[in-house]
């Protein structure tokens, strides 16, 4: 391991992940977006400016190993500064996010919610289709309480939750904090041009405009969950029109209680894979 990386590891004052920009800028940025302390080994054409620009919108500071110096800098200033011999960058969050090791598809009551969250049984299936992992960016569109986005972050993905309801945005932040992960929250309708391109997108309701705008970013995978039968065919057609191969399943799970079985809310899940 290089001397520059060792210096940054020591300066972090906490456990760090080390990623290599030579393996790709986007995966390195997504680890920085998801984790609280990451050292990026720089590569040709990928320096502090590219790292700083890529983490705009996340609460991060940088420490750059530039020759013999360690230079603390705001990400936006790293874009315009002239560097001499940068070797590595430490991307550091203000607070330390925990790593969760207690499974996934958490119980529904693990999330504060206005009404109900996507049931754990369906959520497990959705996570399998989204395939969240370190180095991947997931959009959680019409996120509601953010349960899916929080679960993706717990599995190591970088997550942007897009939700126009300000009350729900507060819930997303609270749920992310409760589970020790970082989820960037955008209080708006989805705007593909304003956000980093995702690897996977989850659309929490079958709203046709949201499905179309999510499909337009050409992520590898788009998953849509809807409780309305009327939204199934338009959502499928929108995904197919955007070049996705579409499959789907209708979930009607019932949970075992002391008094018998209690039916959960039926949900249809569509998923599109880019051709």
Automatic annotation (TrEMBL):
Pathway: Cofactor biosynthesis; adenosylcobalamin biosynthesis
Classification via PANTHER family: COBALT-PRECORRIN-6B C(15)-METHYLTRANSFERASE (DECARBOXYLATING), COBALT-PRECORRIN-7 C(5)-METHYLTRANSFERASE
Protein name: Precorrin-6Y C5,15-methyltransferase (Decarboxylating)
A molecular function (GO) term: methyltransferase activity
Transferase as UniProt keyword: yes
Gene Ontology process terms (BP): cobalamin biosynthetic process; methylation
Family annotation (Gene3D superfamilies): Vaccinia Virus protein VP39
UniProt keywords, alphabetically: Cobalamin biosynthesis, Methyltransferase, S-adenosyl-L-methionine, Transferase
Presence of the UniProt keyword Cell membrane in the record: no
């Amino acid at each position: 391991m290089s001397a520059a990386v060792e210096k940054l590891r020591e300066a972090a004052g906490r456990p760090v992940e080390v990623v290599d920009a030579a393996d790709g800028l986007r995966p390195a940025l997504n680890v920085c977006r998801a984790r609280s302390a990451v050292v990026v080994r720089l590569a040709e054409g990928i320096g502090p400016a590219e790292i700083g620009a890529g983490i705009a919108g996340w609460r991060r500071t940088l420490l750059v190993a530039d020759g013999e110096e360690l230079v603390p800098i705001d990400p936006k200033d790293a874009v315009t500064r002239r560097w001499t011999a940068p070797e590595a960058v430490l991307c550091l969050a203000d607070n330390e996010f925990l790593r969760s090791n207690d499974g996934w598809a958490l119980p529904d009551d693990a999330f504060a919610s206005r009404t109900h969250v996507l049931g754990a049984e369906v959520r497990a299936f959705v996570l399998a289709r989204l395939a969240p992992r370190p180095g991947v960016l997931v959009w959680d569109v019409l996120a509601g309480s953010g349960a899916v986005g929080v679960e993706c972050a717990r599995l190591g993905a970088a997550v942007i939750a897009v939700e126009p309801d300000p009350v729900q945005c507060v819930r997303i932040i609270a749920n992310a904090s409760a589970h020790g992960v970082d989820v960037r929250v955008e209080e708006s309708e989805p705007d593909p041009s304003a956000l980093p391109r995702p690897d996977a997108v989850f659309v929490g309701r079958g709203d046709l405009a949201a499905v179309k705008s999510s499909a337009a970013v050409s992520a590898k995978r788009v998953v849509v969950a809807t409780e309305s039968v009327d939204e199934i065919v338009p959502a499928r057609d929108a995904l197919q029109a955007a070049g996705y191969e579409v499959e789907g399943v209708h979930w009607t799970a019932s949970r075992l209680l002391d008094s018998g079985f209690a039916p959960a809310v039926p949900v249809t899940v569509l998923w599109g894979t880019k051709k």
